[in-house]
Amino acid sequence: MTQKRVCTHPTVVDAVATAAMNSTNDTVAGPTSIFDRYPSTTELVEKFVPTAPLVERWILPLWYIIGLTGNPVSAIVWFGRRMRRNNSSAIYLGSLAVSDVIFLLLHLLYSLNTVWGYQYLSVVLVLGFTVERYTAVCHPFLKEKWCTVRRACFIVVVFVVLSVALSAAQIYIWTYNEEQKSCNHRPVATEGDESSFFNIWTWSVDMVVFAALPLIVLVFNALVLREIIKLSNNGVITRQQAAPAAPTTRPPH
Prior knowledge:
The chain is mainly alpha-helical. It has 2 domains: 34-116, no CATH class; 117-238, Rhodopsin 7-helix transmembrane proteins (Rhopdopsin 7-helix transmembrane proteins, Up-down Bundle). It has helices at 10-23, 31-37, 41-48, 52-78, 81-84, 88-110, 121-138, 143-146, 149-167, 169-173, 197-233, 236-242; strands at 174-177, 182-185. Helix 4 (52-78) runs antiparallel to helix 6 (88-110), helix 6 packs antiparallel against helix 7 and helix 6 (88-110) runs parallel beside helix 9 (149-167). The longest helix is centred in the C-terminal third of the chain and has 37 residues, at 197-233. The protein is elongated and about 70 Å long. It starts with 9 loop residues before the first helix and ends in an 11-residue tail after the last helix.
């Protein structure tokens, strides 16, 4: 009998385990007894959240189709010679498209068994692009120095190394169970409950990558928008747009 694999994000599993403990009549039940009763997190989710497989079955293929079609086109456009010539923004946006394609391919392969929910690179790439746009709009005199194609390529490489380093911790947290034919948390990583390495690492990294960084991106975008509105009110943008339309030939005498 084959096992079905469903989405088993750690926070979902923890919530399901809590619900399972609250619903049992065993007064001494704890996380250990619950996971002894359901050795696989897949079985636990299927037992208490039976609708989870439906989400995975219908929503994920839609995202695969959209992402694996649109992102390659976006990468080709942004990495084109005309777009990336003296345009550092094209490096960030093209790298973001490539990052999303790689993530979707790995996600597709892994979701044949279960769903992997960690993706750090896209978040930091969006941050890098946003800071680059902020510099270009709000500090135009620094644009020539900081917003270069060479510097953008260097920053993208740094972001890739940083994302790989953050993701490497998952190698320690997860292990493959030969008997259950599924990936489960490594026992040593979950020892100590709330003070375990798994909880501390997951909460710390997720709060920074998926909460703090998006807020920083939002702040920079707000500053860019405010600067654009200020320039528009002062007529700077209007004059710049109207300049190419000015006649280039001398008027007749």
